[in-house]
Amino acid sequence: MPLIPQEEIVHFENMIYLPMVLIVLERDRVIIENGSFKLKRPYLELVEGAIKQVQKELNQTKIHMRTHQMKLVRGAGDDTFTEYVFYHRGYEDHRRYLNLRLRNRVEELIRAYFSLVEMNV
User: Fold this and answer.
1) Least enclosed by CB within 10 Å: which of 18, 71, 105, 120?
2) Reduced to 3 states, what is the DSSP secondary structure of residue 81?
3) Cα(69)–Cα(87) distance, rounded to whole angstroms?
């Protein structure tokens, strides 16, 4: 049996990916606001809707982690991998994530959040 339950890994990974998604979306919002788009509002609404969804999910994840004695620490990284340390109720798990995988997953999540926003419009 693993020391950290698989269902808790989802929360750790949310703490990795969701802040990255927010950074990308915030930068994109600035580019749209300052860009020479003919009609900025539809793009801004899409990006801002996604930001709100991500922030909501990130807040829920933070609450879950706090109440379940979980902590994520970013470890060493290089051009290929980034290490994260998962702490859960006294256990420690070191995991290395391929940077390309991190990038691709952030892209997948942005698509998913855009789809959610589109459904709610």
Assistant:
1) 120
2) strand
3) 8
* Residue of 67, 57, 77 whose CA lies nearest to 17: 57
Which residue has 């801004």 as its token pair? 44
Q: Name every residue whose Cβ is closer than 8 Å to that of residue 109 and which is 6 or more positions away in sequence.
A: 17, 18, 21, 54
SS3 content of the chain, % helix, strand, coil (to 5): 65, 20, 15
Look-up of token digits 């391929």: 98
As a whole number of angstroms, the distance between CA 107 and CA 103 comes to 6
**Cβ-contact 94, 83 below 8 angstroms:** yes
Model confidence, pTM: 0.91
**pLDDT by residue (tens digit) across 3-53?**
888 899 999 999 999 999 999 999 999 999 999 888 999 999 999 999 999
